[in-house]
Amino acid sequence: MHTFPPISLIGAPTDIGAGHRGASMGPEALRVAGLAAALAARGLDVVDRGNVAGPFNPWLPPTDGYRHLGEVVAWNRAVMQAVAAELAQERLPILLGGDHCLAIGSITAVARHCREQGKHLTVLWLDAHADFNTSAITPSGNIHGMPVACLCGFGPQELTGLGGGAPALSPEQIRQIGIRSVDAGEKKLVRDVGLDIYDMRYIDEVGMKRVMEEALLNLGPRDHLHVSFDVDFLDPGIAPGVGTTIPGGPNYREAQLCMEMIADSGRLGSLDIMELNPALDVRNQTAMLAVDLVESLFGKSTLMRD
Is 295 one of the catalytic residues? Predict the structure, then answer.
């Protein structure tokens, strides 16, 4: 049984990068659904650090291909500093989103921590979307469609260089799982950079077990696994509380298996829970499902397994 370090919950209540209002209420919905208590019941040491602060969402149209770039930078800098502070104390940060643009700050902090510790970072990006848009190809200017591109160095310097140096990640460090919506311009870009994408067709063809075996291949003691979990990864039939519902996502059992196999790897070091939008949810069921899946990520299983 893998033992986890102490856990810190960090709320980032903003929908600054999104196309719908409401993801700003995601952190509170996860708290109401009992995330801290569920993890504590597993014997884990959990502290809720409260919320980071950032600018109000002005809800303006895009400027030069980006909506709210200055505000997005401010929020991501706050997230980066909060996540870095927990990693420095050898704690496992869980970022409660908020929209998915905030993963830029979260993963930039994790990447820098891994470089300093001599660890190899692998990012599992659980999402319906590739999030590899740029200002040149984005249909909307919403930066929550750009975090993977920014982390790989494709984007505005304020975000690609958020950690001070070169891009936080190279494309071969990312495995994307559950993808089923890629914009036309993105398709060429993700192919050109060689992004490792396990889309829904591939999951249908070979099954979630094989997908996760491939995604988790060759992880060793020097590996740090960061999971960036966009709740729209899940099929909207079980998880309606998201701004961009795309039918045909993983069902409950597939999602559980995905989380359980990540837990079995013993390498989980940091986590984002993103894009939960309680304004679009039904009696907080999506938040409760997210909590259930996160319990599995931290080792809950039906039977005792070695």
Answer: no
pLDDT at site 302: 80
Q: Alpha-carbon distance 233 to 297, whole Å?
A: 15
CA distances from 241 to 25, 219, 272, 286 (A): 11, 33, 17, 6
Active site residue 144: yes
Annotated binding site for Mn(2+): 100, 127, 129, 131, 230, 232
**Is 264 considered catalytic here?**
no
Q: What are phi and psi of 225, to 5 degrees?
A: -105, 120
Q: Which of 131, 199, 260, 281 is catalytic?
A: 131
Please tell me whether residue 175 adopts helix, strand or coil conformation.
strand
- Which of 15, 86, 99, 127 is catalytic? The answer is 127
Which candidate in 68, 113, 129, 224 is catalytic?
A: 129
Q: What is the largest CA-CA distance in the chain?
A: 54
Annotation says 15 is catalytic: no
Instruction: Give the strands of the sheet with 268-274, arranged side by side.
Output: 46-51, 7-12, 92-97, 268-274, 223-230, 120-126, 174-179, 196-199
pLDDT value at position 301?
87
Catalytic residue status for 214: no
Q: Is the pTM of this model over 0.90?
A: yes
- CATH number of the domain at 7-297, please? 3.40.800.10
Q: Could you say which residues of the chain have pLDDT below 50?
A: none
* Domain residue spans of the chain: 7-297
